[in-house]
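=== RUN LOG ===
request id: a7f3
mode: sequence -> structure
chains: 1
length: 1042
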Amino acid sequence: MLNPIAFRPGPVTFWTTLVYLALLIPIIIINEEPPSAPDQSPYDSVNLTQAWLDLTTITRAHHPYNSHANDEVRKFLLQRVESILDHSGASWTTDGTKSAFDNSNYAVTVFDDMTSNVTFLMGSGIGGAHTGNEPSVGIGAYFEGTNVIVYIRGKSDDAGGWWRADALHGSRRNEKGLALVNAHYDSVSTGFGATDDGMGVVTCLQVIQHFANPSNQPERGIVVVMNNGEEDYLYGARALGQSPLNPFIHTFLNLEGAGAGGRALLFRSTDKEVTAAYAKTTDPFGTVIGSDAFGLGFIKSGTDYSVLYDIYGQRGLDLAFFRPRARYHTNQDDASHTSKNSLWHMLSAAIHTTRSLSGDTGTTFTGPRSDGARGKVANGSPSDGVWFDLFGKSLVLFGLRGMFAWSLTVLVATPLILIVVTYILRKLDKYYFFASNVRTCDQPDYEYVPAGGWKGFFRFPFALTVAGGLTAGTALLFKKVNPFIIYSSPYSVWATTISLFYFSFWAIMRGANFARPSALHRGYTIIWLFALGWATLVAVTVAEDRLKIGAGYIFVFLQSAVFLTAFISLLELFSLQKKTAWGMQIREDHEARDLFHVLPHTSDTPSQLPAIPRHESLKAPTARDSDATASATSGPPGAYQEGDGETEQDEPTERTPLVGGNATSGHIRTTFATTYRRSISALVNKARRYEEDGEPYEYEQSWSGHLPSWAWFFQFLLLGPFSIILAAQTGLMLTDAVHQTGADGSNLLLPYLIVFFFTVLLLLPLTPFIHRVTHHIPVFLLVVFVATLIYNLAAFPFSENNRYKTFFIQRISLDTADNTVCYTGVEEYIRPIIAEMPSASGRVVSCGKGLRAGLEECCYDGSAVAPRLADDLPDGVPPENSYADLVWINVTRGDGNTAQLEIGAKNTKACFLKLEKPVSGFSVDGGTGWDDRFGQFPEGGVNHIKLWHRNWDQPWVVNLEWKDDKAQVSDPNVTIGAHPFGGGDLEQRDSGLDGTVVCAWSDANAPGTIPALDEALKFSPRWTAITKTSEGLVEGRKAFKV
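=== RESULT ===
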């Protein structure tokens, strides 16, 4: 009976193909579709239908911080919070009201924050001529927060208004700490913000609704923050630092969106303990690789997590949508392009995680900080964790130190174990690896018997080099010829790389084994895998210990599995004869046959030869027949081709016997080489099938007949399934994260390198067995390769569902009314887009380096589409006539090198100062002073100041100080531009401070406000998406001089 798991082509092809398909198909489905929402919520007071209705309300218009729609969203959120609390049965109040002080034991307190003003350092400077030897120059910002904060009192929280400055002076308050749930309610100016971050906001509303119910009161207090201004520079989270509750927040869950649907990914986590709060959700999804990528700086974009963890020291998680990136920050980030299933995936995870974080009343999140950082919350000593999901249904979580110990054990113990087993095998004379010859006698005139023990050793590195090189070359070809094809067709690219690597590797390994069969082929491949894996694990272990990187868990698991398969390969050798016994048997057989050949045959001594076969068996021997003879009669086929030596044979004559021997020889040669002749017995033995017990497979070494044919199956089960799951899940997740980032200016080669790397990792478990796979699968994959290669090289890379993201901005000189419309992207695609714009017809389009790295900016005269930025412009008046009045600047020179700038602008809440030289200090009236938590004031000063107001048409009063001893001012009062309440003449000076005020307009919800943007949305090709370049869709510039 045929063994169904024998190491034969049929079973190997069937089982390996079945395992790959059984794992890859569900992984792809899970990657593409979020889990279905239940018909009825399992959580009390959580209403998915209501959450969806809230989402559609929030996303009716684009609502960036600098828009009127943003004010409407804020009003709606406050109304919804009041409605939820009124129906919850809980007592509640608004902080700052008289009732809040009369009875401070309310279950819920709402903070309508209209007072948090923060002045801080943003980052490196823009512009200004300075060398690397000069002090660094920075960017400063002043922001006025409008966050909505809800505090839900926990059972273990202190009574009363413990957070107030006048409460319990000198005592430790609310030591158990609070759990934060955070999301931002502003969108970008070109998107509706359904997933970025509307779903996070409506999830916050449901969290309030659930925990405000008296029956669901948490153990520790919960703070729900719906912040404003995240999109431009995480301003809302920075304003949270001014809240009296912030110093008591120990843990957080940040809800975000960096895509536009799908599953909510555990983007990153601060430590193992907070990840454990998420781990028991019904559908966890994520891997520690994301956290490590952020930590190493491979991912440049930030979320509020960066402020909550890096600045405030809170411990928590980032839960975010991350695909498809092409809809991110565009008008397709709306309710119609996402689903209730996606919303439920985030909502259910948030409820469970918040319950777990707030339910921990022990010392997990309390106590002294392990880093000893001053000014940060004392929330205990975290430990580094490693995590990844399995099929989106369970989360594997363990400590990084544990993985380091495991890695170190694998590095040290596994080679020693294999060495010990190898030593035992050598002692037992059963170690056939690396055995070229077998010595059968101590007599010097006895030659060695070739064992063919080196055959197959060099195949794996050669095949891996060639197949890997071809696959990597294909990735480079895509980058060269059609670099954006992965943008819309990632699965097509995956199909190309997988099919090419599979076919090329199979062709080399199968061809090598066909020409020179070896029973050690599988074992040598595993030995190579072990050696390469061990070297890789050294680097992984160093990263675990020195860099606290857990992303190498895939290699830890893989190397552990490779060790077990190598161990089995060695155990297989125990089933074989001793090498000397096998060699003696082979020698005795050949000596007897040689003796038989030279003896005369008479009627009294009838020949013992079997009947002479006819037909094919009498044909001249081929190379494989020679190997067959060797295998059947004297040992490994083609042994001398491996360098074991071969004795020159006499040329045959008419006297040469048909069977063997040499009529001219007068003696019997005892050398082993003389036995390598084609014999009738070999032809007979060749006809015997390999299924017979003890027979080697086809033309492999004769000593291999007793190797267990089922061992490979268990090796594949150890090496294959788990490694395939990890490689496939991680590869798809990383591809989804980066394959559409090329439009943002990211490296175009990176997605292809990720696909290449995980293709190799995905197919490595198959490599020890691939030479037994029949030709059907590889030939089919060859067809797939050819078809997908042609498609990937020739197809247009964008589609209506995978639109190329183009960055838009319009710039106006308020002094001269010059007007330019600019698009940023890859020039090859930007020019065809601009060509479709009616306003660009006949205009000169000039392209140059853009503000975004790796992208070009193409601009043309936009006078035909002048924006209407003032809301008081009479009908029929050209918009250009109002530009001079849009921004006014009143400059007052003070004593020494100081000045006060009063800046006003119509219909905007954002203006920026760009200075020709840095100032050594600045402040804004109404601000709270410089916040050192975000960085000390730069030694080289600040040359760029960003100003944000919460109210419309309210001027900023900015106080500046700079280092310039030569500055002399005769008239302290100067007005530049047209002031609504009076004018003034500009006094020219030779010294002082020059600069430009740049104001931004971001509200394009009313048609006709920014005609250039309306035109872009209407006339751009269907494969194009329009998104913002900067904070404003329109920037107006006006110069000033002090």
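=== NOTES ===
The chain has a mean pLDDT of 87.
The longest strand covers residues 804-813.
=== END ===
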